[in-house]
């Protein structure tokens, strides 16, 4: 700043002021900003300011081949990339009328649920850090790394697996892999009591999270909230059960709900979901050895693949909420239009703006993390 | 003269052997205590928490995250920078105190990576600010990040990591690229030319046509217009 240029401006005395919260702020999730208006330390108005991560995905996808887009889609949501691949692959399969072999469907569920656990552990870590409990963050990130090791083993990539392609999956599971998944799941399950003591039952967390960012079920439905955030208001809606895809209709699992709709309830729903995911994975591990067959339906030469004209809409349940793809093909080698309806664009913009009002400045970060918004997916 | 002026802080060119030892000591200490600015620009940031926490543990090298640009030494650009982010990155970079180091993580900072076609991202980071080190990969693993940081430490210790001087010496080039992207009116709150004079880091490229353009357009800074929603209309009901 040049001091000679600076002149103090006369303002009427006030106790209202404006604050730029982010994008370079430790309390914000990713590269995202909020402009908040404060009275003392109570928020009276909040405006989301996104676009820092905009890459123009929907336009980029129109310029690449159907198969090339598989490498592009996981980048839309960084912490939980697997549902992105799957949802896009499902859309292409529907357009082409491809039938995915049974074994590939089971392997896909394995991948999805591993990804869900990893994403939830990461969210717990981030949420705990906003309440000052850094040990939970260290634990969460480190335990997530065990899952990333599994991903690396069977897909080849730690974070972006690029494993689902239209028609099936790319590789067979390595020998002895299911045994290692079981070991990791056992370990994570044995850690959960520790997490309970350190985080979920910790009074530091419970007192700070209870009553923060409350939304009722009517509000949640009106604002387009989905996923764990909706289930925290008591409505048991889950795409996996209500509109099953892949083999979810053959699996047994529950939809955990909570009633209070605040930050605490949202985090607790995720914790229960983690248990359900472990339960699903155990069923998959039991079933997979008996399911034989190919892992990929025959697809034409991917470099000269003209997908039949038509439009389709697919949806899956990602760890953040309902994720949908609207894909239009004009019969050419590239998509005509792809639209991504990500859950976070609702959670991080319209919901966060409203939930922040009335809360204290230090609770904004917590509200954002409890909504589990994913900024790259907001901006796309 | 106060005694502080007699301490050769940066590369004193005197023939004093003591100053050489002192320089080496300073560089050694500097490379052992680095603070990374906590700014996640792109998707490569997801590999930083594992690198920082218990499994890979960056702290054993003396590297820690830091929240304020004024106290940070390293600006990690973790992935693609969209144009909107690039403005903030440049403001942040200019705010950081020298000596400062820039690391570009991910292929996207090298040449645009998989967004080479995108209308919204800046492709080559080193057109806008000097970069000390690139860690390529999409995305680089935590081991690679740590190996890159170790290399930076070695370079700091041997005195090669002085790209920040380049920003002062070739300010015209960087400013020109920034003006191409953000328009001719682009102006940051930091006065780089005065700083370059102050640190005695004027080079051939400090002045040029772009800095002349800046002087033409330069307006006294107004208090930042942070008024919220000033273009929103009042609700009618
Ligand atoms: S190089 Fe890959 S991981 Fe890194 S920012 Fe670019 S797309 Fe993301």
List keywords for this structure.
heterodimer, A: 380 residues, alpha+beta, Cytochrome-c3 Hydrogenase, chain B, three-stranded antiparallel β-sheet, B: 237 residues, alpha/beta, Rossmann fold, five-stranded parallel β-sheet, two-stranded antiparallel ribbon, 9 helices, 7 strands, disordered C terminus, binds iron/sulfur cluster
Can you describe this structure?
The complex is a heterodimer of chains A (380) and B (237). Chain A is of the alpha+beta class and 380 residues long. Chain A has one domain (57-379): Orthogonal Bundle (Cytochrome-c3 Hydrogenase, chain B). Chain A contains 14 helices and 8 strands. Chain A has helices at residues 57-62, 69-72, 82-96, 102-130, 134-155, 177-200, 203-209, 217-222, 228-231, 239-242, 263-287, 344-356, 364-371, 375-379; strands spanning 16-21, 33-39, 42-49, 164-165, 168-169, 310-317, 322-329, 337-341. In chain A, the strands form 3 sheets. In chain A, strands 1-2-3 form a 3-stranded antiparallel sheet. A 3-stranded antiparallel sheet of chain A has the order 6-7-8. The longest helix of chain B has 16 residues, at 142-157. Chain B has helices at residues 17-31, 48-52, 83-95, 107-111, 142-157, 163-169, 171-182, 192-198, 209-217, and strands at residues 34-37, 63-66, 74-78, 81-82, 101-105, 121-122, 133-135. With 237 residues, chain B is an alpha/beta fold. Chain B has 2 domains: 15-161, Rossmann fold (3-Layer(aba) Sandwich), CATH 3.40.50.12280; 170-220, no CATH class. Chain B is built from 9 helices and 7 strands. In chain B, helix 1 runs antiparallel to helix 5 (142-157). The chains are: A alpha+beta (380), B alpha/beta (237). Chains A and B meet through strand 2 and helix 5 of A and helix 3 of B. Bound molecules: iron/sulfur cluster. Residues 42-44, 79-80, 106-108, 113-114, 138-139 of chain B line the site of iron/sulfur cluster.
């Amino acid at each position: 700043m040049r001091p000679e240029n600076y002149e103090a401006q006369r303002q009427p005395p006030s106790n209202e002021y404006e604050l730029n919260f982010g994008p370079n702020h430790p309390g914000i999730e990713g590269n995202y900003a909020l402009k908040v208006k404060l009275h003392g330390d109570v928020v009276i108005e909040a405006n989301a300011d996104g676009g820092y991560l905009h890459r123009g995905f929907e336009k980029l996808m129109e310029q690449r081949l159907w198969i090339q887009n598989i490498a592009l889609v996981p980048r839309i949501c960084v912490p939980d990339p697997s549902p992105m691949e799957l949802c896009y692959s499902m859309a292409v399969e529907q357009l082409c009328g491809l039938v995915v072999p049974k074994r590939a469907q089971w392997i896909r569920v394995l991948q999805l649920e591993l990804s869900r656990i990893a994403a939830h552990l990461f969210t717990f870590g981030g949420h705990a850090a906003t309440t000052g409990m850094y040990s939970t963050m260290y634990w969460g990130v480190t335990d997530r790394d065990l899952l990333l090791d599994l991903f690396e083993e069977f897909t080849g990539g730690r974070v972006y697996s690029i494993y689902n392609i239209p028609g099936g999956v790319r590789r067979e599971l390595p020998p002895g892999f299911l045994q290692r998944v079981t070991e990791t799941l056992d370990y994570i399950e044995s850690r959960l009591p520790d997490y309970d003591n350190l985080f979920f039952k910790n009074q530091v967390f419970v007192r700070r999270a209870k009553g923060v960012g409350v939304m009722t079920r009517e509000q949640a439905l009106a604002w387009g909230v989905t996923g764990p955030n909706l289930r925290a208001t008591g409505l048991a809606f889950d795409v996996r059960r209500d509109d099953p895809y892949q083999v979810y209709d053959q699996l047994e699992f529950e939809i955990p709900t909570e009633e209070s709709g605040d930050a605490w309830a949202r985090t607790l729903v995720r914790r229960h979901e983690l248990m359900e995911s472990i339960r699903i994975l155990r069923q998959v591990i039991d079933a997979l050895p008996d399911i034989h067959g190919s892992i990929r339906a025959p697809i034409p030469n991917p470099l000269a693949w003209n997908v039949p004209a038509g439009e389709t809409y697919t949806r899956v349940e990602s760890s953040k909420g309902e994720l949908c793809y609207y894909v239009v093909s004009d019969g050419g080698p590239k998509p005509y239009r792809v639209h991504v309806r990500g859950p976070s664009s609702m959670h991080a913009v319209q919901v966060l703006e409203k939930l922040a009002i009335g809360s204290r400045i230090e609770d904004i970060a917590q509200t954002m993390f409890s909504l589990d918004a994913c900024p790259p997916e907001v901006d796309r | 003269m106060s005694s502080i002026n007699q301490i050769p802080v940066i590369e004193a060119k005197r023939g004093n052997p003591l100053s050489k030892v002192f320089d080496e000591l300073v560089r050694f200490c500097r490379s052992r205590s680095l603070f990374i600015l906590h700014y996640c620009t792109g998707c490569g940031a997801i590999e930083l928490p594992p690198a920082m926490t218990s499994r890979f543990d960056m702290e054993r090298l003396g590297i820690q995250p830091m929240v304020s640009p004024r106290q940070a030494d390293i600006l990690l650009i973790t992935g693609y920078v969209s144009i909107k982010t690039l403005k903030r990155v440049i403001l942040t970079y200019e705010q950081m105190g020298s000596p400062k180091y820039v690391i570009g993580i991910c292929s996207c900072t090298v040449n645009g990576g998989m967004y080479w076609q995108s209308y919204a991202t800046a492709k080559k980071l080193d057109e806008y600010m000097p970069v000390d080190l690139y860690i390529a990969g999409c995305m680089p693993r935590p081991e690679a990040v740590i190996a890159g940081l170790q290399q930076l430490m070695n370079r700091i210790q041997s005195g090669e990591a002085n790209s920040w001087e380049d920003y002062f010496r070739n300010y015209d080039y960087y400013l020109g690229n920034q003006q191409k992207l953000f328009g001719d009116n682009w102006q940051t709150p930091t006065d780089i030319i005065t700083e370059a004079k102050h640190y005695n880091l004027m080079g051939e490229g400090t002045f040029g046509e772009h800095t002349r353009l800046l002087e033409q357009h330069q307006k006294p800074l107004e208090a930042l217009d942070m008024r919220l929603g000033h273009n929103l209309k009042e609700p009618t009901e």
